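Obj.: predict assembly geometry.
Materials: sequence records (below).
Method: joint structure prediction, all chains together.
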Amino acid sequence: MLDIKLIREKPDEVARALATRMEPVDFTELLAWDKERRECIGSVTELRARRKTVSADIPGLKKAGKDTAALQAEMKTVGETIKSLEGRLAEVEAKIDAFMSMLPNLPADDVAAGGKEHNEVVRVFGAAPAFDFEPRNHVDLVGRLGLVDYERGVKMGGNGFWLYRGDGARMEWGILNYFVERHLAAGYEFILPPHILIHRCGYTAGQFPKFKDDVFHLQGEEGKDAKYFLLPTAETALINFHRDEILREDDLPRKYFAYTPCYRKEAGSYRAGERGMIRGHQFNKVEIFQYARPEDSSAALEEMVAHAETLVQGLGLHYRVSKLAAADCSASMAKTYDIEIWIPSMHEYKEVSSASNAHDFQARRGAIRFRRAATGQNEYVHTLNASGLATSRLLPAIVEQCQQKDGSVVVPEVLRAAVGKEVLRPVE
RNA sequence: GGAGGGAUGGCAGAGUGGUCUAUUGCGGCGGUCUUGAAAACCGUUGGCCGUAAGGCCCGCAGGUUCGAAUCCUGCUCCCUCCGCCA
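Observations (raw C-alpha cells):
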C-alpha cells in the first residue's frame, strides 16, 4: 500500500514513478474521494464533540429540575446526522481502499523503467560447463537416475506434479538441510509456519486482491468466500509473523527463514520448453526474510543477495545475478534481484532466487511498525525477502551441469553426506 | 463434534447506563538519594484519524439510548471438560 498522503501532496510525481511499471494512472477520482473523506471526518468529529458535551450536561440539568426534552430531541437529530455521515464515510473509504490496494509499489530510484527487456545482469559466477559430448536434459537424467518420478507424480496430483524418490528424495532433502545450516550460521531464526493461511495474510503480502487467481483457495463453508488458501511462498507467512505489531528499534533487524512447499496454480503460464521441474504446482523453497529500519534496508538487500549467492556457489554451479526492471518486479516490491541458474539443455538462465526490498509497502498493509528511539514516533519497517533457495530449478541445474558422458552425475561435495554417494549412476 | 466459561492498556486486574477524562498494582522509562547498586520516594508511561481544536479505540461488527466498557444481536478468538483422533 502506498501512502495516500504522498499521492495527495505529489500526485504527478507518484504517477510518473508508477508509469515505469504499469499503465498510466489517473488520481483525479481518488483525490476527490480523499477530499470528501476528510470533510466527512471533520463534520462527524465536530458533531460528536457537541453531542458528548450536551449529553454530559443532561444529568446535571435534570437534577436541577430543568426540562431536557428539547435538548434530547435535538441530540437525537444530531445522532441521526452522524449516522448518515458515517455511512457515507464508509462508502468513500471502501472506494479509496479498493483503489489503493490495487496500486503497485513505487520502484526504487535506481531501478530501470520498463519490462524485463530492461533487466540488467550485474554479476556472473563461474562459466557454463563445456561438454565434449551431447548433454542430456534434466528430465532424461533424473528419470534414468531414478531421482524423480513424473508419471507417478501425475497419477497422484495430476498434471504439474512430480515426486522425488530414493536418492532424488535424499538429494532434495539434503539440499534443504544445507540451506537450513547456512541460514542458521548467518543468524536467521528458523520458522516452520502453517501452510494454510487466512485471507488477511495474502492481503498483507500484497498478493490479494490483485493476484488472487494465482493461489489455491480452500473451499469456504456453505458457499462463503474462501477464507483459507495454500501459501504460494513462505514469504506470505513470514510477512505476517509481525503483523499488527510495533517492534523495538533495537530489535531490528529481525531475520527469519522458513522452509515450506510453495503451492501455485500457474494458470496459463506453462511454456513450451519448460519441461520437468521448471514450473509446477508445488515446489520446495526455503525463504529468508528481514524486518529492517528504513535506513538499513538497501544494505540488507545486498547482504541477502550475497548470502543467497553463497548457497549456489557452495554447490559449484554457474549462475548470474540480474537487477530487474520496474515492470518485472512483483507488485509489492520496490527493487528485486534475481539469481538465475544456468540450465544447459535450455540454453537459458532460470530463476532460483528472487531477492526483494518491499520498503514500507507490505508493512503498511500489515501495520508493522517500530518505535524510533530518538523521537518516540512509530514508523513503518521495511521488509525484505529472498529465496534461499527454490529447489525445483536447482536439482535440474545440478544434474545437468554435473553430468558426465556416461549419464552419471557427480554429486556436489556439500550434498555427498546427505545423498550417501559421490556419483549417481543410471538405474536399470 | 458436545457442554460450559471468558476476551479491558506491555502484564495482572477493577469497573454492570451518566465527572470513566477507564480505579489500582506490577513492569518499563526519567529523576531524587547513593561511591555504585538495591530499597524508598517523586514523576512519567498505548494506538488511530485530524494542520489544529478535537474526535475515535475496553476482541470485531451492528443495534437500543440524549448518553454504552456497561444493555441487545451476530461474528471471531482463547480457555476448561467430554468425545473422536495423526
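Conclusions so far: The radius of gyration of chain A is 27 Å.
To do: check interface contacts against the pulldown list.
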